[in-house]
Amino acid sequence: MTPPTINHRAGRNPATHHQKESIMTSKTTVASLEKTLPSRLGEFKNRATTAKEAYQAQRRDILQNDRLSDTARTSDLAKLLDAHRKELDSIQAEQESYKTGLIRSLESELRGSQPTDANSVLLRRDAADRVRKIGTPQEAKEILQDAITNSDESLAHAIGIRAYNVGWVDVADTWKAAYPSTAETAAALSYVEANTSGAAYNLSNQITYSSPVE
User: Residue ranges of region Disordered (predicted)?
Assistant: First the structure.
């Protein structure tokens, strides 16, 4: 009798193959952050707005309650305001925790691509200082090409991040082509930092989490 033919390829586990593909594509990208970051920040803002609306409704109930003495009314209003302030602080703390966790995660991804010894950190700082003096995209592209040729990754990444932030598309594309993995993570980190810091972000937080004006 002819022995049955064994199909070895049929034994591959599709789920395992899918898991490997997921792991390979798990890096955070600017495109994904453009969808998730504003949405998540908006969720915190909406929670704060809902809390403020609930506070105002409860405050009106207390003010309109004729059975309360002036002393009791004052006490209840003070307790309500204190509880509301704590609720807003808690929501803001959650927002900052989310932001910090996201930045740390991206920094961890970036450290996986770049050395973290003291000398490498110093080289990156020096490169960043040098890049701040670059005034045109043409100058940036020329220095970037030299950095790539000489394997000066610290300078190349500093130029690439600057190019991404100021909109020098051609320079940024050259950087991404030379260092696709690191460039994507660095750009994602830059995007998060740009949208979770600065005057506009701080002003938005002040408005969102400010105590109500009585």
Answer: 1-24
